[in-house]
Predict the 3D structure of the following.
Amino acid sequence: MDVAWTAQHQFGEALLGEHLSQLLVIGWSVTLSMIILRTAVLPRRLGGTGLVVSTIYLLNQGDILATAVPGFPVWDLAGLLGSTGWGLWVAALGVTVVVRRVRTPSSAPINAEVPLAGPPVPTQPTVSG
């Protein structure tokens, strides 16, 4: 009975629950950081910081995998630095988005359709002749 519980715990909780969810969070953070760096929609230092903390957070995965794979290398400080750094980065991201929205209110109506690219779309039919 003890072996079955341990196997279920290692596979279900450690590998699927913690490891997979943290990998998805890291993937989201890296994707968002790359969008920030490429488009400059937010300050570029925020994108760079996101890549750094995501990398450190990724190093923490050794701690989770070591519970299921004996002998897997672990850097103990990665857990503290990675998760704390990531949490602070998300907080800074939220504050930046809120402050940026307050400082630059949009003059366009909320439901206005704005084309992303291409020539302007005429709003009135044109009559030739």
The first helix runs from residue 2 to 39.
